[in-house]
Nucleotidyltransferase
Amino acid sequence: MYRYSNDKTKCALLFNCASAVALELLKGGIKPSRGTKDIDFAIMVSSIQEFESIVKELSNYGFNKVEAPWTLYNDKFNIVIDLMPFGEIEEKFTVNFNERYTDLHVLGFSEVLEKPETVQIEEKSLQIPSLAGMVILKLIAWSDRPEDRDNDLYDVLRIIEHYFDLNYDNILEHHNDTFTEVEIFDQLKISARVLGRNSSEFLNVSEAIKERILNTINDNVDDAENSAIAKEWVKNKDWDLEYAVQLLKEFRAGLMDNLK
């Protein structure tokens, strides 16, 4: 985990990537196809004032605020940074940034970042969320702002698509019950089921996370015809809506398998 300190801001920060870039770094070879390099930083600060100090510091390097008050964009390098505070200012999971009704929800960050994955970048180690933790964060982020967070759903699907191969040995050893004889082998359904099982650990440590994730998944499974998640998934796939909902059902079943 990188530590950042700055004499001008007089604050020390720990931050983690929690984005498609983190997915690429974690598994090396899963490249995000989006036009911008979306980087989410979870920043441990004690006040909004410190948050604003970081925004000011980043502006010196060409990052400017866009419409969302927590989003910065560097047009030279085509990079978006979403700054997401947590820690002492995580009270009630919401931080108010201005007089407008604009909230930044940070539910789940503390829990997910307690169990990070470590990746090596040259001579440095970087701690980032596990794939299971990343799914939780992205579902929460999407549920906060579904109108402009479709990229989060794309990332969740990308994780499902690669999860089987990336966890092949573990699945064979610990999740062989997902291989059924009555159905045709479906790698994506197995991936979704196992991913749900591994994601459930974050639901088990927080009632707020459990309520948010289960409500989000249930809403998109029980009303299949209007499932916003399933509809987004089928846009670029040769699937019908029913199959996308089946993947969501498998993910939910995995969550329930290990839910306490």
About this structure: The CA atoms of residues 25 and 122 lie 12 Å apart. The first helix runs from residue 20 to 27.
